[in-house]
Specification:
The chain has helices spanning 5-14, 55-63, 88-91, 94-108; strands at 21-26, 29-34, 37-42, 48-51, 68-72, 78-85. The protein has a six-stranded antiparallel beta sheet with strand order 1-2-3-4-6-5. The chain has a single domain, classed as Yope Regulator, Chain: A. By secondary structure, the chain is an alpha+beta fold.
């Protein structure tokens, strides 16, 4: 599946209150930056993922129903990326999506 322009526009609108949003296509998906810092991406299936490398933020996202990005390698081993699905509630609430993105960005700085 390939990412459509409507998916990209939705994500840009969702995070529009963040400063200097830019994007870059990669591997069939899209990375999302604020002031040059990657804080999210959209997978090729249009799922929006927030970056987190902080245990407390990971737990908060999990409590909100987010799932960590886990995939299976060619050898069958499970591997994970430092990205969590955007909680469903945030998909319909730009204020919540932006608040979570701001939190992710603060932890990445």
């Amino acid at each position: 599946m390939s990412l459509g322009e409507a998916d990209i526009a939705f994500a840009k609108e969702l995070f529009s209150d963040l400063p200097n949003i830019t994007t870059r296509k990669m591997f069939g998906g899209l990375s999302i930056y604020s002031d040059g810092v990657i804080f999210a991406l959209i997978k090729s299936d249009a799922q929006i993922m927030l970056k987190s490398q902080d245990a407390a933020f990971d737990a908060k996202l999990a409590d909100m129903g987010a799932e960590k990005w886990v995939y299976e390698r060619k050898d069958g081993a499970q591997s994970s990326m430092p990205y969590w699905s955007l909680p469903d509630a945030a998909l319909d609430d730009p204020d919540l999506a932006t608040a979570l993105a701001r939190e992710a960005l603060a932890l990445l700085s």
